[in-house]
Amino acid sequence: MSTAPRDPYRPVAHLRPHRNWINDPNGLVFHDGHYHVFHQYNPYGVAHANVHWGHFRSPDLLSWEPLPIALSPTPGGEDADGCFSGNAVSDGDRLVAFYSANRWDRSPQHQPVTSAASLDGGRTFTPRGELLIPELPEGCTMYRDPYVWRDGNKNGWRMLVGAALADGRGTALLYESPDLGTWTYLGPFDARKQEPVGGTALHTGEGWECPQYLPGESGRPGALLFSAWNSDDSTRCVAALVGQERGDVFEAGAPAFVDHGPDCYAPALLRAPGGRWLLWGWSWEAREDDWMVADGWAGVLTLPREISVDDGGTLRQQPATELLALRGEHNVHAEGVAQGPEPLELGAVGRAFDLTARLEPGGASGLRLLTTADGSEYLDIRLDAATGELVVDRDHASADARAHGGAYRMPCPTGQPVELRVVVDHSIAEVFLTSTGQVLTLRFYPTGNGPWRLQAHTAPDARLGYAVDAWELLPLVIKEPSAGTRLPHGRPT
Q1: What is the value of pTM for the model shown?
Q2: By three-state DSSP, how is residue 283 classified?
Q3: What is the CA radius of gyration of the chain?
């Protein structure tokens, strides 16, 4: 039995394989009584290379079984240099995956669509072996990442593919099919030139990666989600367009953030039983490459989130209800008023916890998570009444200079109590503003070894009413791989 100390930054309640690189969640589907989560995966190292599809499944979102690698590049084939992002659908006994076939001898921004099918619940897949859509529409300068869903109105299937157009617009291109095999191009589902997102300097990008579609139901609007891509690798974001499907086009208003943090990208949707929709995103590392290479892993999937559009057209997210079962010991229960320059101690927490807070601010105030005994290392959650924003600040969250800093904001109503849910898991924090349904995800890397503790902070002339509860966050159950499902090690041959 290994006696090596546990990696202090590896999350316990967020899904990822034991080692190596992961990025986008792919192929999220409920099939044969299980939630299936695929993801971009390099089984050979901690770099974005040798891209396969890794695969987990779960009956309940709490216990997960690693399954064999689902998709692997075919030497000399259409996907010889990587099985890039896409999604999967359940079609009777078949589980059908659609993905971007990468070859470096094509333009790196042109990744045509192909597919693979499984008849054994996702344990093995048979690749199509040829491109499903061999010809790109005219005027595409970037093309990848299929998303397929069943069209309830036409008893057929629809597909979106992310793209950039030569006229400067980002777009999701629409196709339809009666049988998942023959596809007809219908045109842009939505397309627009770069627009600011949420009144910030971030914008909708030159092209749209990983489009996802949340159809409107019961008279409510739907949402088109996409990851904003720029050819210069400048700062990216994840945006949503909320609107209505009108025939073969989507009519929507201004873009809004799907996640206000710096470390969530390429989210993907899963239609769960009962009409519920779930979302996972990729949370990349916010530390220098040498650090993650030394640790032997990079990237993690976010918590599964319930996502919906309310009657007013607001996109709302919250942790999946099942995750309440991961609450362990109730470590903190604190109520009172903080006032003046001295912080109030609220209690000690571990490196993984689930927190709820009701805050009634009167001026600049907030919560602080201290991760060293001397208080020099901390993560701040501040309420900025002057700007009407909630601020999550990691500038002092790690004494290691290789960790990234920055303060990140999301709108927060003033003049009323603020309801929060914060899930911290070793090196990832997901901050849910319960009253508005918004979320902010970031990574941080504390170096302190002692107990962490929570404080209430106020400016000298401010006050903060608070009710804070925190529970230990229990780990997911990751089953041992059965025979024949262990993941490869070493370099590809």
Answers
A1: 0.96
A2: strand
A3: 22
